[in-house]
Write a structure and sequence with these properties.
Layout (H helix, E strand, L loop, with lengths): L5 E5 L4 H15 L4 E7 L5 H13 L6 E5 L19 H15 L3 E5 L3 H4 L1 H17 L16 E6 L2 H11 L18 E4 L4 H9 L2 H6 L1 H7 L3 H8 L1 E8 L9
Parallel strand pairs: 1-2, 1-4, 2-3, 4-5
Antiparallel strand pairs: 5-7, 6-7
Length: 251
Amino acid sequence: MGSPRLLVVHAHPDDESMWTGGLLAKHVRAGGEADLVMCTWDAGTPRHGELLRAVEILGLPRPPILLRYADDRVPASAPGRERFCAAGFDEQVRTLAGHIRELRPDVVVTYDAFGIYGHPDHVHANRLTCAAVDAAACGTLYQRNGAPWQVRSLYFATIPIWMIEMIADDIFAGVSRTQLPGTPENMIDVHLDVADVVEQKTAAIAAHQTEIDRSRTIAMFFALPDDKRDRLLGSENYLRRDLVPGGCDLT
């Protein structure tokens, strides 16, 4: 079998680059197919334009699929639309399951159960993705939304404790370590070395200038010394859940 087909599900523009940009860039560079579902921010908004630029930098062959919900904390992200976390869950599952059936990915990637650092939209994206993957495989559910499709493996982006320890004094000074996220090393299934595409990944993150201007944390991250920032961006870490015997490797 050749490269697996990937579907990556994210809550907000910039997450695709920050947490999975290396995976996407490496996968597409190697000739693999990949698609992105973005749960919040509608077409025509400033961050949607930045998202289009970012996925172009990463090399994705198609524009992202938009679910068009509002960011939990920014109603202007999708004027007149429901907040992502407040919308009807069954309809969200139906919609995403339909995209899975149409795209037929071998692997689906999203956040871990804590949403990496606890953002409610990230947590909701994890729950939605897991439910939609199960629904897509069930032939008696949503029969008008295409033929059933069994995803082979789910991967969950996570942040290891060593990364938190690297940036704790720079970005989280004064915050108790017990309040910070982080997955123990022995729980992480995949350590993906993306150092060879770190410039491409960094450029994709930088395309999200609106979020860099808004977020103190991201601005402080970009102020880190280049070698430290590159080491952090050069590693992506995932939990793995196989849905069929043997599952599917990420790359």
